[in-house]
Amino acid sequence: MMDWESLRDTALHCTACKLCQGRHHVVFGVGNPKAEIMFIGEGPGQHEDEQGEPFVGRSGQLMDKMLHYIDLDRSRNIYIANIVKCRPPQNRDPEQEEIAACMGYLRNQVALIRPKIIVCVGRIAAMTLIQPDYKVTRQHGEWIQKNGVWMMGTFHPAALLRNPYNTKNGFADFLSLREKIQELGIEI
Ligand code: URA
């Protein structure tokens, strides 16, 4: 298996799908690669593409707030990545072909980090990693174990900003994450 730096370097030069054509930055991920908790979103938006870091726009600010609520911090005790590392034009959903072209990077990131918990942020991540017909409104906050990793899907912060009705449920999912961290004896 590739080491972290080679994986990152390969991703930063990737031309495996058409999303490479319009990008300003490949958004590889951010955080502590030794963390035991991973968050996986959908793909970079405009601000992420400009800055090369995941979740830095308005939805990123809400995400940071929810993380801090349970003592998590992107610079310290988690790692954040996306399903696709390059921005889809107009923030459309990534196509299956683009997801397939990019999955190797995420698979290797997960293999190197070996997280005990993966939180899927939003529908696309949950459909890709938990189950193809995953419904966030119905299944958010549910824990499943897959290949020895505890996984949960939750609302995308952008969805919460569009429809604040679910914000309480989103925070409740984070509290459930906090409990799972304690239950598994993870030091944060
Ligand atoms: N939305 C995502 O899913 N990922 C990001 O990095 C930013 C916004």
Please explain how this structure is put together.
The model has no long low-confidence stretch (mean pLDDT 98). 42% of the residues lie in helices and 14% in strands. It has helices at residues 4-12, 46-51, 58-69, 96-113, 123-129, 136-139, 157-162, 167-183; strands spanning 30-31, 37-41, 79-82, 117-121, 143-146, 149-154. It has 188 residues and is an alpha/beta fold. Bound molecules: uracil (URA). Uracil is lined by residues 41-45, 48, 54-55, 59, 82, 121-122.
Task: Show the helix and strand layout.
Layout: H1 4-12, E1 30-31, E2 37-41, H2 46-51, H3 58-69, E3 79-82, H4 96-113, E4 117-121, H5 123-129, H6 136-139, E5 143-146, E6 149-154, H7 157-162, H8 167-183
Parallel strand pairs: 2-3, 2-4, 4-6
Antiparallel strand pairs: 1-3, 5-6
The protein binds uracil.
Report the β-strand fraction as a percent range.
Answer: 5-15%
Largest sheet: 6 strands, mixed
Ligand inventory: uracil
Which value, in Å, is the CA radius of gyration?
15 Å
Average of per-residue pLDDT values: 98
The chain-level structural class is: alpha/beta
- Could you name the ranges where pLDDT drops below 50 across 5 or more consecutive residues? none
Strand order of the largest sheet: 1-3-2-4-6-5
Number of helices: 8
Shape: globular
N-C termini distance: 27 Å
Order of helices and strands: HEEHHEHEHHEEHH
Share of helix among residues? 40-55%
